Amino acid sequence: MLNRNFLISFGLLLVVALAPLLMGGGGSPPPGPLSASQMITGPTVEGIFVMDPHEDAMITTLARHGSILLRHKRLAQPEKVAAAVFTIPSGFQLLKGCDTSFTTLRFVNTPNRTNALKTFIAEAGIIRPLFADLGITVPPTMTPVITRVKKQGCTTGGAVPGIPDPLGGVGKGMFWMIVEIKMQVERP
After folding, report:
1. CA-CA distance, 142 to 185, in Å (whole number)?
2. Of 115, 10, 6, which Cα lies nearest the Cα of 106?
């Protein structure tokens, strides 16, 4: 469970480090259900995401940028943490700005829709090293996926002063979510 001081410290770190880059949340993941030959398995990792889900840097200065912090705790071992910043790929459509009603559609892996972290984290060299920092090897046969959203929300503000907001003020701000991440694998 995240304590309040940790969240405040992490949030301040993100604001200071990424303030010029972050602001909103919404997009369309690739279609396709989980096949009968696939299953979801552990380990379970907690992820904290903060991202600007806006399409255009003219609306927010951090359009299509985000940060991720992963936390993993094993019994009788100290908690491990890994973090990175990333770019949301241009093929991942961001609509409606920060609208939490799109969170499951955009990011959560369900039996009817396969959503992987690599769908919205553009840099190929980020995901595997992050998990390696936690002591988790992610071979090509394993795909990290979000299986549950624990908490989510939007920050206030986020539009660039003096620039008209085509969303009419709806969906402003940065999108954040605290999630459960597991692995999608082929059944043995």
Report:
1. 5
2. 115
Q: pTM of the predicted model, to two decimals?
A: 0.75
Q: Which residues of the chain have pLDDT under 70?
A: 1-35, 57-60, 95, 123-124, 157-172
Tell me whether residue 143 is exposed, middle or buried, using C-beta atoms within 10 angstroms of its C-beta: 0 to 12, 13 to 18, 19 or more. Answer: buried
Q: What is the pLDDT of residue 108?
A: 93
Distance separating alpha carbons of residues 61 and 161, to the nearest angstrom: 10
DSSP 100: G
- Give the chain's end-to-end CA distance (angstroms, integer): 33
Decide if 175 contacts 98 (C-beta within 8 A).
yes
User: In which order are the strands placed within the sheet that holds 65-72?
Assistant: 80-87, 65-72, 38-51, 175-186, 142-154
What are the start-end ranges of the H helices in the chain? Answer: 4-18, 103-107, 117-120, 124-133
In the chain, how many H helices and how many E strands?
4, 5
